[in-house]
Amino acid sequence: MAPTRRLKRVVASQPGFLHLNSTVDAATLVSSRRKRINKNKKKNWTKYSDINDVEDFLEDVRHQERTTGGLISEKPDDSLFFLDVGQPRTAESTVPEPGEGKKRKGKTSRPLRIDLILQRDSLVPPPIDVLAYQQPNAKKLRRKAQRAEQLAAKGVVTRRQKQLLNRRPVDRAAKKSLTEANNNPGRDFYDIWGQESKPVGDLWYLQQTGKRLVKRPERLNEQPSVLPAVEVIAPGGSYNPDFFSHQALLQEAHDVEVKKQKAEEKIERQLAFDKDDTATEETVFKEQVEGLVEEDDDAEAAEAANEQDHVAVGAITLSEKKTERQRKKEKAEKLKDQRRLAERQQTGQQQQLYQLRSIKSSIRQQEEKTKARRNERKAKQEAQKSQPRRLGRLKFQAPDLEIKLSDELAGSLRQLKVLNKLNFLVPSDLFPVRKCNHFTL
């Protein structure tokens, strides 16, 4: 019996259970048994507390402040109620003013909707930032200022003012050589945007302490390459190009292909063999029988060479000893040749005195050639700035032009094909073009 009674009580406590008494409120259908809650926990305060009435009250207060500018209960009756007696009709209002022009009939001018949106629709005044007007130790500073005014009115000089008056003047000229702090109010005026840099200290002191900055090399200020970071394709390469721009791009690609074809034909002509050197039946027969018929002639030539060698060995004779007379004669001829060479050099030097004009002209021509070579070298260096630099053992090869024929042009961006974007970065000295070497046996 006990389980059955407990089941009935549980079923009767459900919200969907209908009692016999139809006048019972639905709120009373729920069991009125109080739920035990630990109220010593802060998280249960808001979880099991009904604050709807407080929220409704605060929402009502905010609504009144937003619409009327404050609580209605605190407003006077004159601001809430008024007596409608209609608009007064006077004779003055019916007579138009002479200064006004002819007005347009219809509705009176109203403010624009965009201006009404920008206006403030709430009557709540903006909050005042009190912290913006506060100062630390404001009362203390105010009392000091009041006391200073009272002493100044009486003619009393304070101790602080006496110390300032008795202070010796500072020699400003002696401190100009030292580095002044940025927060020093007595420092000299200088232009922070000026080109001249202010000395920061003694050069020897900076060098000994290791605080001297390294001078920036001038080569870092020069741009190594004038090529842009990313090259922009020609106007004819867009997805919807102009007719003349597209034809100009096609002509450029055609010229490149013609140049390549001419280079290939030139190599073929250089490597081609002469028709007169072609092999015939007679030349083929001579190559086949070569070395078979001339064996006897070779043997006879070898024997003749051996006989000549024996004769040459037997013809060697010893040199005779020179006499004293021959040695003196050779010595006199040697001295005579040296004297003749010295006289010739002296005569040449004397003749050079009369050749100053020709020497100066030759020197001038040599300097002009040197200057021309220097200018040519400089022009070559300037031209190399517009060329991709060689970063490896392989030279840069310009990629083929990305072109589309007239029947391949796309009318929208969705129909375009993705290009190899790395080709646009190659001339910017980012990386060299790799090329595979194939070896054949």
Automatic annotation (TrEMBL):
Pfam families noted in UniProt: Nop53 (PF07767)
GO cellular component: nucleolus; nucleoplasm
Keywords: Nucleus, Ribosome biogenesis
The UniProt record lists the keyword Nucleus: yes
Biased composition (Low complexity): 344-357
Keyword Transmembrane helix among UniProt keywords: no
Location of this chain's protein in the cell: Nucleus, Nucleolus; Nucleus, Nucleoplasm
Amino acid composition bias (Basic and acidic residues), ranges on this chain: 330-343
GO terms classed as biological process: ribosomal large subunit assembly; rRNA processing
InterPro entries in the cross-refs: Nop53/GLTSCR2
Region described as Disordered: 89-111, 321-390
Gene Ontology MF term list: 5S rRNA binding
Primary role: May play a role in ribosome biogenesis.
Family note: Belongs to the NOP53 family.
Protein name: Ribosome biogenesis protein NOP53
Species in which this protein is naturally found: Takifugu bimaculatus
Lineage: Eukaryota, Metazoa, Chordata, Craniata, Vertebrata
